[in-house]
Amino acid sequence: MKNTGEVTFTYSAAFMKNGKKSVSVRFERNDGKDFADGSLPDCIIEKQEGFSEEEVEQLEVYLMENADDILNKAKEMSKITNILK
User: Fold this and answer.
1) Does residue 85 register a pLDDT over 70?
2) How far apart are CA 43 and CA 24, in angstroms?
3) Rg (the chain; Cα; Å)
4) Is the residue at 1 inside a domain?
5) CA-CA distance, 74 to 25, in Å (whole number)?
6) Number of domain units in the chain
């Protein structure tokens, strides 16, 4: 049976990893029972549970198509976080 529950997407503030600005991302559904963790700029899902292979591919396509926007928002969040320190 295919799960059609609502998927929630969250992301971290931007941080440096291997000399590149990076962002951690997470997709969740079913109150977090199903999850997929990935990163930008690589646009790959690194760890997941409860999502089908096809769904993971769709999540990676979503990351590729929206990478610039997500990275820009994460950079802005980083600026705000640094002001609050």
Assistant:
1) no
2) 10
3) 14
4) no
5) 10
6) 1
